[in-house]
Design goal:
- By secondary structure, the chain is α+β, with helices and mostly antiparallel strands.
- 36% of the residues lie in helices and 15% in strands.
- The chain has five helices and four strands.
- Strands 1-4-2-3 form a four-stranded mixed beta sheet.
- The longest helix has 21 residues, at 109-129.
Length: 171
């Protein structure tokens, strides 16, 4: 009967390993997400900060991280920016951070949302490797929806391929 199926399903889910939901591409709430672990990501189970209350804004001491075309790989320039940003994050624990991934106008909306999330996750993972508390850092992708430059030229596209680290006071 359906009650028996329900009981068996509950028993099977209770026996699942803690990381099982991540292996099948689902987050801890069973929802699909674009932020799967990158092959070079540190082995960690740190929960991201919540984005729910919003209120994130730019800080002059947190610089934008550049990315190459069609890539989420951290360049030497990106690593340098991230090291400086990480020092700011570690020095002031009174705020949470949101890393937003952005792309240039080329590619589909879905592709750019996924790429933007990979970029944001690479930045967050690197912050964690540098000693930033991952529970203070959330990620989000805006894909190609928040352009800083609207011209269809490489100089402009390179400005749009970025990850930004925004902050808000801890609640």
């Amino acid at each position: 009967s359906s009650l028996c199926v329900l009981v068996i399903a509950a028993m099977v889910s209770a026996c699942a390993t803690p990381g099982a939901s991540k292996k099948n591409g689902l987050d801890k709430d069973g929802k699909a997400g674009a932020s799967e672990a990158a092959p070079t990501a540190p082995p960690t189970e740190i929960t991201e900060a919540s984005l729910r209350t919003g209120g994130f804004s730019a800080r002059a001491d947190l610089k934008s991280v550049p990315f190459d075309y069609d890539s989420a790989k951290l360049s030497d320039e990106a690593l340098s920016v991230l090291k400086t940003n990480a020092e700011v994050l570690k020095a002031d624990a009174t705020f949470d951070a949101m890393v937003s991934g952005h792309c240039d106008e080329r590619g589909t909306v879905a592709y750019n949302l996924a790429l933007g999330q990979k970029r944001a996750k690479e930045v967050r993972d690197y912050y964690i490797r540098l000693g930033v508390d991952g529970g203070r850092v959330a990620t989000i992708s805006f894909g190609k929806e928040q352009q800083t430059c609207a011209e269809s030229a490489e100089e402009c596209w390179s400005q749009n391929r970025r990850a930004e680290t925004l902050s808000r006071a801890k609640k």
